[in-house]
Amino acid sequence: PRFVINAQNCVHCKTCDIKDPSQNITWVTPEGGGGPNYPNM
């Protein structure tokens, strides 16, 4: 399967990174790298 993420609709929740147990997604948030920090995950 292929994930297509539209940065225009991104709310910077990082769910797509958390739901990727194989770490196939290299996560970089759009517009400056903001977003939540989940220290226990």
List keywords for this structure.
41 residues; 2 helices
Brief write-up:
With 41 residues, the chain is an all-alpha fold. It has one domain (1-41). 20% of the residues lie in helices and 0% in strands.
Describe this structure in words.
- The chain has helices at 15-18, 30-33.
- It is mainly α.
- The mean pLDDT is 69.
- The chain is globular, with a radius of gyration of 10 Å.
- The chain has one domain (1-41).
- The N and C termini lie far apart (24 Å).
Q: Describe the biggest sheet?
A: none
| SSE pattern | HH
Q: Please mark out the parts with pLDDT under 50 across 5 or more consecutive residues, or reply none.
A: none
The average pLDDT score comes to 69
Domain module count: 1
Radius of gyration: 10 Å
Range of strand content: under 5%
Class by helix and strand content? mainly alpha
Number of β-strand runs: 0
First and last CA, distance: 24 Å
Q: How many alpha or pi helices?
A: 2
Shape annotation: globular
